[in-house]
Amino acid sequence: MDLKTLTIKQARKDLDAKKYTAVDLVSAYLEAIKEKNSNLNAYLEVYNDVIAQAEAADKRIQNGEKGELLGIPLALKDNILVKGRIASAASKILENYVATYDATAIEKLKKSGAIFLGRCNMDEFAMGGSTENSAFGPTKNPYDTSRVAGGSSGGSIATVASDIALGALGSDTGGSIRQPAAFCGVVGMKPSYGRVSRYGLMAMGSSLDQIGPVAKTIEDAEIIFKVIEGKDNFDSTSKESPIEKRQNKKIIGVPRKILEEKGISEEVLKNFNESIEKFKSAGYEILDIELPRISYSLSVYYILMPAEVSSNMARFDGVKFGTLAEGETLTEDYMKTRGTLLGKEVRRRILLGTYVLSAGYYDAYYGKATKVRSLIKKDFDEAFKKVDAVLMPVSPTPAFKIGEKTSDPIEMYLADIFTVTANLIGTPAISIPSGFTTGELPLPLAIQLIAPYMQDEILFEIGKDFEKLK
Ligand code: GLN
């Protein structure tokens, strides 16, 4: 079997036709992991029971059980809980933390018969856009190992991009699935807020977080999505899938003004314009749209997200979770634990969040940002009256060099300019490979589609149309 060209869809056919067994399949992956992972640093842990999981799947296949993911090997982001296994969020503070229950997405995958190969590297607690904030070293980009894989789900994405997993789960609070997917040339999707249960996902920004699929093709991403989505009683913000599916009228909106933002690379722009032409050739109508307040997205995100982070991170005090770095007094315990076991970026966001929520500043920052958030949403609601989806770049540049932005947090935050909006307004969004840069080591490029709230299916439909054009 050729892991490079293998898709979930193909593996399903092969497994059902008994061309090979799940044990054969995972053995091939374990072999590939051995060869590639030490260089890429994509997996933090490869599980030691992969073969046993595959044997169980083979039994189910032999018994005639059907299921799209039965026997399919996937990789997991290290902030999603799997009962009895370590979930560290790539942080020293949780280095030895063992989850006591399954996340709902995991429970659904287990039922479907998917096999978990291991847990993947990420920015600590998902805070970052390059996986350089991991306490366990950065993940490298499979296309050029001097560059970042993106983040925060860099590990998950790199496993799929380097053929050491068939698909993966990531999480996306402000672009953490879509941006690394763009940097590594795979499909990454952030579902509508509430479409996939957040139960068992370590909270970063609770009003923004979503678990989502990573895969090589749109079809594969859709297969994973269908298994993990749905209302869940353990997450009161989760929702039933919509009964009324919007009809795809093949109209795509382009907010041209955002392309004037400084910092967009020539190659991203050129590729974006070429992608528009591709859509036209597939019979799509391209409509220029105005999203007057979209340019405030990044500022709003970097107020609301840290506010939620500061409150969510309060639980990591060394007592309830994880490791304790002991001091002389209780206050010293907290200071030492949080000061030594949490990384710099995590501490920065806790401070920022505490500040924007503090008395006297709350209205000026948090309150105002909340209002602007609804205005941005209103702009999109207007646009979606006319268009089925909005087309934007994913990232202003292709994958950057390891170390290039680590000394300047603002530079790093600016890279999130096109991805945070979908999280603020709760809409589904997807990153789709759209070509490569020219040059000695070509780097992947991607486009982003954003669909109306709860109309996640539209993204798969349009995505498949686009994929065919390559
Ligand atoms: N890069 C963004 C940030 O640093 C997004 C992170 C995410 O989606 N988890 O906040």
What does this entry look like structurally?
The structure is a single chain. This protein is an alpha/beta fold and 470 residues long. The protein has a domain of 221 residues: Amidase signature (AS) enzymes. The chain is built from 15 helices and 13 strands. The strands form two sheets. An eleven-stranded mixed beta sheet has the order 1-3-2-6-8-7-12-13-11-9-10, sandwiched between helices. A two-stranded antiparallel ribbon has the order 4-5. Strand 12 and strand 13 form a beta hairpin. Helix 2 packs antiparallel against helix 3, helix 9 packs across helix 11 and helix 9 packs across helix 12. Bound molecules: glutamine (GLN). The site of glutamine has 13 residues, from loops.
> What is the helix tally?
15
Order of helices and strands: HHEHEHEEEHEHEEHEHEHHHHEHHEEH
**What's the CATH class label of the domain at 8-228?**
Alpha Beta
Within CATH, the superfamily of the domain at 8-228 carries the name: Amidase signature (AS) domain
- Would you report the number of β strands? 13
Alpha-beta content class = alpha/beta
Describe this structure in a few short sentences.
The protein is α/β, with parallel strands linked by helices and 470 residues long. Helix content is 38%, strand content 14%.
Characteristics:
alpha/beta, 470 residues, two-stranded antiparallel ribbon, globular, Amidase signature (AS) enzymes, eleven-stranded mixed β-sheet, 15 helices
